[in-house]
Design goal:
Blueprint lengths: L2 E2 L2 E2 L7 E8 L4 E4 L4 E3 H5 L4 E6 L6 H14 L3 H6 L1 E6 L7 H8 L9 E6 L2 H10 L9 E5 L4 E7 L4 H13 L3
Parallel strand pairs: 6-7, 7-8
Antiparallel strand pairs: 1-2, 3-10, 4-5, 4-8, 6-9, 9-10
Length: 176
């Protein structure tokens, strides 16, 4: 495994490699319209970018979501249409469905990807983070799950996050 900008590389990917690969978690949270969203089932077989954060975050969360959005605009529309971007709020007190929906609208323009905002109780969010192997309340990490339902790469906030995601997304989408 080599390094690029201080981050471990996983062969063909520009993002940080995950070894071992992490299976797509089977978690169910509430979407912005108040309906249950079974993450593992609904996103299965689709490239999926998963990010835990909160809408009141002044810097890391909006920057990360902007980078994800910009990376999506750099890949073909057909790939965008296959891709899910799932934002799970860690602020169970302030991030209502309406707040998350409004916040995500800042990032889903000019892309054909499906943006999903999820929320839950503190116990549900803790369980979701554990299932996704993301043990932080506020993460600067985006997990990319492939069509084979495994995450082999993650992105840490950096100056080249957009380019890393845009490079790796087609590779992960082609994996079976």
């Amino acid at each position: 495994m080599s390094e690029l900008n201080g981050q471990p590389q996983n062969g063909k990917y520009l993002g940080a490699g995950l070894n071992p690969a992490q299976p797509r978690p089977s978690i169910t949270l509430t979407d912005t319209s108040g309906k249950p969203f079974a993450f593992g089932q609904r996103t299965s077989g689709h490239p999926t970018l998963l990010y835990f954060g909160y809408t009141n975050c002044p810097d890391i969360c909006p920057t990360t979501m902007f980078d994800v959005s910009a990376a999506l605009r750099a890949v073909p529309k057909a790939l965008q249409k296959q891709t899910y971007v799932v934002f799970i709020s860690t602020d169970v007190k302030r991030d209502t469905g309406a707040v998350i929906k409004k916040w995500l609208a800042n990032f889903d323009t000019n892309t054909s990807a499906t943006f999903v905002g999820l929320r839950g109780t503190q116990a549900q969010i803790d369980a979701a983070q554990t299932a996704a192997h993301d043990g932080q309340t506020h993460s600067a990490q985006v997990l990319l799950y492939g069509t084979d339902d495994y995450a082999r790469v993650t992105y840490l906030q950096s100056t080249n996050e957009q380019q890393q995601i845009a490079h790796d997304l087609p590779l992960v989408a082609a994996q079976n």
